[in-house]
Amino acid sequence: MSGEAPKYIEFGAYSRHVPPTIPVAVQQATGRFLGTRAARVAEMENWEALRQAASDLRLHTLAHLDVYLERLEQQVTAAGGRVYWARDAAEARAHVLGIARGCGARTVVKVKSMATEEIGLNHAFEQAGIQPFETDLGEYIIQLAGTGPSHIIVPAVHLKKEEIAALFREKLGVDAPADPVALTAIARAALRERFLAAKMGVSGANFLVAETGTLVVVTNEGNGRMCTTVPEVHVAVVGIDKVVPDWESLTVLLKLLARSATGQKLSTYTSFITGPRRSDGEGGPKELHLVLLDNGRSRILADEVARETLKCIRCGCCLNVCPVYKNVGGFAYGWFISGPIGAIFTPQMLGTRAGRELPYASTLCGACVDVCPVKIPITKILLHLRRRIAQGDRVAPPSAPLATRVAARLARWSLATGWLYRLGARVTPILEAPLARDGWIRWLPAPLNRWTQVRPMPAFRGGFRAWWAAHTKGRSTP
Amino acid sequence: MQRPVQLFVTCLGEQFYPNVLQQMVAILERLGFTVEFPAAQTCCGQPLYNGGFQDQARGVARGFLHAFGEGDTPIVSPSGSCVDMVRHHFLELFPPGSAEHELARGMAGRTFEFSEYLVRKLGITDVGARFPHQVAYHASCHHLRGLGLATEAKQLLAAVKDIELVPLPEEETCCGFGGVFSVVYPEVSRAMMQAKVRNIIGTGAAAVVACDAGCLMNIAGGLRQAGSQVRAMHLIEVLASQGSAR
Amino acid sequence: MSAKGGAVIDSVRRALRREAGAPVPARPEILPARAAAEAEAEVEVDLLLKEVTALAGVAQRVSQAEVGASLRRLVEQEDVRRATCWNTPRLRALDIEGQLRACGVEMVPPRADKHALAQCDLGVTEADFALPETGTLGLLSSPEKPRGVSLLPRVHLALVSRSALRADLHQVFTEAKAHPYLILISGPSRTSDIELTVTLGVHGPRALHLWVLDDRR
């Protein structure tokens, strides 16, 4: 995978050829997570109140983000950390590489971090002659395989244990049986070496607490702790939207995060890191560096409707309920973030010209809206982005193909013009008659064949108005 | 004196399900209503709105406003998604303070989906129907989540004589129609539709019932494609039934 | 603030249409903790043991008198050759180091380097906090309580006093926020990344043992 963000997201092309193993694997994962989530939600009598509180809190923070960011920087610095600001991915990469060169790192161990994928950090490291090691087991596997993630939480779920064993045999040169326990042990041993050797650990953060300048890092595996404790230098790359006002805010968000993601009450490890270690021998890094990433987030903030996209706490629950995602998997969304959140985040980050296929990758069913722990109005934002694509708005000119825009005008004309609509209703059954058999039409010319290539269309029937006229004959009101 | 009610037939309803519209009229008249049909109506503009073409949708919605006019006569429709459009999205299309915005506001308050009107407004769950068959219910997305109608259709079905309602696995999962979605991403639409059809056939029911023409077109076509004899019926067809499935 | 920082903050302000120095209202009220009925301490201990066990931890009450025998059993079960231990008054008073040495275990100082700690089979700590509701332990860090002890060895033994019990996260955070480091631990290290099969001991300890010290018996 190259370091640059994709130039165009080809959701359509990918969705036409989804390997059948993908939906099967993805649906196993999503089914499991939704099942355990349901048990957790049933236990909590105040689940809806928690969601509302989380939504209000996130909106408040975003609406006053300037102040919270200033406070965060002050506090991180007071705690002995160093803060760097990155207006875009290039500046973020430059900061991180600068720190790596400064400490002479030849290898780097990384906790799973979507922000580092966003900026293409691994590629930048490799170009600079520094070897990055993903340490989250799923990320480690797909790094070895050279592919992207099929799911936010379990990125390698599309791979069978036999494939992973073959991968380990090939890339690690070890005898690897097709058994999850043995494979995990191999990865543990291999990565242990890396943790102990690396001069620098790179992480993201689930939250940044402005009150005290604290980074919150959540994992189940312990690699979050390893990367942020063992190497002498810790660098965190975090989007500016991850700020929360204070520790108390975390009580709401942490209650929602793991339950929404995997149905756990809390993930195994939640680290709260405020500055580098205070004394030698205590463990932890000597240096703590925080790179704060804008890269288009402030632009999204400016759009009051779409701003709610930034409330996201990356739980992955919207993916788990989305019937579209569950039939295509993560690759179709073309970048590191997929599912409903990907369909609204990516077109805003990359622009609607590059991401114009994504907001239409939804039936607007609303299942995601029901489960999002921070109540992002995803369908509302999808429609907002569709409007930007179809007819343009203050942010961007239209990027829908001309043919579509012309078709929309024709559709408006025929639907809004009474006599034309009624004429069309009378004429269409006649035109269709040769194509209809038993009340069904199995073939239509392109582009209407997009319907009939999947299932037959019922024949136009009409006739209601004539029936009504007869029904109300003699009646005074029409 | 009979109470008036205005019919909002919907573009898909008028073109593909005129029998459902006739049956709806029959049920309403049996309940003592004088049914009116504002003939200038065409479409609510939802397909254009969902496509992102809000300016074009406005033109169509304007026609709707003028067709139905002012007043407080309830407007009743056999389609949850169309009612969702009128109730929740019309107001976005017209600038606040304008005459059309006020008209839209009034319309939003008096437009109802059929099962919603019967159960929530009239308090009626039994319309005297008989349908002696196993039936599965598909919860259309806009009907369920857009209008918040989780139980009304089922209440009406439960009161039908000799009916047996069987649970449909993944009842609330989208069938894959999604309006423009079905022609923009037909392969994904197919996968979703086939999953829905498999679930329906697996129940062994003679019919699947839904409250949205788009879902019904999609599911009916899918059942036919699968060679299944299961009928896809509108709720109104079951409620108008006096005995046979055919 | 640096120039780039200023630029980002300005971008944010422009987006929000806020002036520098504009006030920030208080953030929305956080839901207060559910008023837990004054739970009896033993009920809370029972809940803690149950939740930790559900997470595949090994949890039990251990009286002071039993510590030595329990350590011996643990050393055998988990095949411990080398261990390290926090240097806190409580653990010194219990003579954890001495008792482990008596089992033939080589003791490594807790402030030893990462390689030495990684060679240990067992790390022994206390818990600064314990949350029964979720089976969670909270550990701070200090020169006497190094972070690596609960992380690098493959077995983690945490001794919990009743005084560490807390009702909820609100209580833990009120105290912990003054400290530079807190780790909340809920069970042993785990993953389901390979075909959704849960496996333990990915990077953190494979086994978590929790002993609630029973001072009464």
Question: Which key phrases capture this entry?
Answer:
heterotrimer; B: 246 residues; alpha/beta; Rossmann fold; 2 domains; 4-stranded parallel beta sheet; 13 helices; C: 217 residues; 6-stranded parallel beta sheet; 7 helices; 29% helix; 23% strand
Number of H/I helices of chain B: 13
* Residues in β-strands, percent of chain B: 5-15%
Oligomer: heterotrimer
Radius of gyration of chain C: 21 Å
Question: What is the topological layout?
Answer:
The complex is a heterotrimer of chains A (478), B (246) and C (217).
Chain A lengths: L10 H6 L4 H23 L3 H17 L1 H14 L3 E5 L2 H14 L4 E4 L3 H5 L2 H7 L3 E4 L2 H9 L15 H12 L7 H18 L2 E4 L3 E3 L4 E6 L3 H7 L3 E7 L3 E2 L2 H15 L7 E5 L13 E7 L3 H6 L14 H5 L1 H6 L10 H12 L16 H5 L6 H14 L10 H15 L1 H15 L3 E2 L2 E2 L7 H4 L4 E2 L5 H8 L7
Parallel strand pairs in A: 1-10, 2-3, 2-4, 4-7, 5-8, 7-10
Antiparallel strand pairs in A: 5-6, 6-9, 11-12, 12-13
Chain B lengths: L2 E5 L3 H6 L1 H13 L2 E4 L9 H5 L3 H15 L6 E3 L2 H14 L5 H12 E3 H8 L12 E4 L3 H6 L5 H7 L5 E3 L14 H4 L1 H18 L3 E4 L2 H13 L5 E4 H5 L7
Chain C lengths: L2 H14 L24 H14 L3 E6 L3 H11 L4 E4 L3 H5 L2 H7 L3 E3 L5 H5 L3 E5 L2 E3 L4 E5 L14 E6 L8 H8 L4 E5 L4 E2 L7 E2 L6 E8 L3
Parallel strand pairs in C: 1-11, 2-3, 2-4, 4-7, 7-11
Antiparallel strand pairs in C: 5-6, 6-8, 9-10
Notes on the structure:
- The complex is a heterotrimer of chains A (478), B (246) and C (217).
- With 478 residues, chain A is of the alpha/beta class.
- Chain A has 22 helices and 13 strands.
- In chain A, helix 9 packs parallel to helix 10.
- By secondary structure, chain B is of the alpha/beta class.
- Chain B has two domains: 119 residues, no CATH class; 106 residues, 3-Layer(aba) Sandwich (Rossmann fold).
- Chain B starts with a strand and ends in a 7-residue tail after the last helix.
- In chain B, 56% of the residues are buried.
- By secondary structure, chain C is of the alpha/beta class.
- Chain C has a single domain, classed as Rossmann fold (3-Layer(aba) Sandwich), CATH 3.40.50.
- In chain C, strand 5 and strand 6 form a beta hairpin.
- The radius of gyration of chain C is 21 Å and the shape is globular.
- Chains in contact: A-B, A-C.
- At the A-C interface, helix 2, helix 3, helix 4, strand 1 and helix 8 of A face helix 1, helix 6, helix 7, strand 8 and strand 9 of C.
